[in-house]
Amino acid sequence: MTSEVQAVMTQTPEMEDLVPSEASPQMAAGDLVSSSTFPKVLRHRLDKFFADGKISPKAERMMWVKIVTGLTVLAGSWIALYALRPGSWTFVALYLLGGLAQTFLLLNIAHDSNHNAISRSASVNKTLNYVFDVCGINSYMWRILHHRGHHSCINVHGEDDALTGRGLLRFTPHEPHRPLQRFQHIYALVLYALFSLDYVFVRDFECFFFPTHDYLSRTKHPAREYVILFASKAFYFTYMLILPVVVLGKSPWLVAGAFVLVHLIVGLSVALVFQTTHTVDSTYFPASRDEFDNGVYHIFATTADYATTNPIVGWLAGGLNHHVVHHLCPFVCHTHYAPLTRIVKETAEEFGVPYRQHPTMTRAIWHHLILLKQLGSEN
């Protein structure tokens, strides 16, 4: 077993957070024999996959192909805009192509890099972290919300940032009910389409200056992160909104329309990829993060996979349809998720631990909407 695999894969039951520390010590072989619990056996088998195959848990060739492809399409679409100076319809088409590239990069590259899952080199991961900022979202704040506000407290009301519905959406039975939410299963998809616009214009600034979570209020952000926040937003608005008007002479209304359309695509796509993994009618909503003796059981109770045998979905969604494995192994590159999911399924079945999954993404979306209808109808 390499030290890299040991660091990446190990999770101890005593850890407060559900996210395993990359520096956690390796479980001794004797421990597995003396206490063959589901978490220990599962961890041993996941370790063994990398050790037996002498496989690095970080990025391999396919991941680097995805990185080059995503960045090339994004850069190429913008180069084409200024090199070709196209008419309105071609402009919108190229602008949307850039938006699709942003969606791909957010799900496939930015997410993994912010989990340090792409490279053993901290500088490589850190550089790719800024894909978020290139797409208008502050990478520093996203890491805080995603790691502390989601991975460490999945589906826990008041702590899991992914359950934030701004009073318009009710994602958990522990949240107070509002009359408007009776129709949330009808209007939810419209709000999801606004998800990235909210992040770009409101959420990042709100979290820095008007935090609603206690852990954000207690955090003293480095001065450089405030500089990066404003500089990256200025860069994003400049290349997305200002330059097409000033340099290409496009109508502000045309550019604004294309900008909104891009975000409707990004917002709806990203929101559905994530919401269908935790907030469906078969997942559990713990009263606190301490409800389970072991974080592995917490993950299995609160997380659902979908379309795990469909390689196209896995390729486009950054492996996030293999979401149980992602939470068990967040420091592992997503291109390894498919075989790890098979190990998870077999081990869960062997120990009688419920493993939640939907055969297609469409079914996962349907069961997400069923949950929204159920929660919207409760008083």
Notes on the structure:
The protein has helices spanning 3-9, 29-34, 38-52, 61-84, 88-113, 122-129, 131-134, 139-151, 184-193, 195-209, 214-217, 223-246, 252-278, 295-302, 311-316, 323-328, 337-351, 361-377; strands at 304-306, 356-358. It has 379 residues and is mostly helical. The protein has one domain. It has a two-stranded parallel ribbon with strand order 1-2. The longest helix has 27 residues, at 252-278. The model is unreliable at 1-19 and 23-34 (pLDDT under 50).
Describe the structure concisely.
By secondary structure, this protein is mostly helical. Helix content is 62%, strand content 2%. The chain is globular and about 65 Å long.
Write the layout of secondary structure elements.
Elements (H helix, E strand, L loop, with lengths): L2 H7 L19 H6 L3 H15 L8 H24 L3 H26 L8 H8 L1 H4 L4 H13 L32 H10 L1 H15 L4 H4 L5 H24 L5 H27 L16 H8 L1 E3 L4 H6 L6 H6 L8 H15 L4 E3 L2 H17 L2
Parallel strand pairs: 1-2
The span between the termini is: 53 Å
Q: Which regions are unreliable across 5 or more consecutive residues at pLDDT < 50? A: 1-19, 23-34
The number of domains is 1
Cα radius of gyration in angstroms: 21 Å
So how many helices?
18
Task: Give the helix level as a range of percent.
Answer: 55-70%
Characteristic terms for this protein:
18 helices; globular
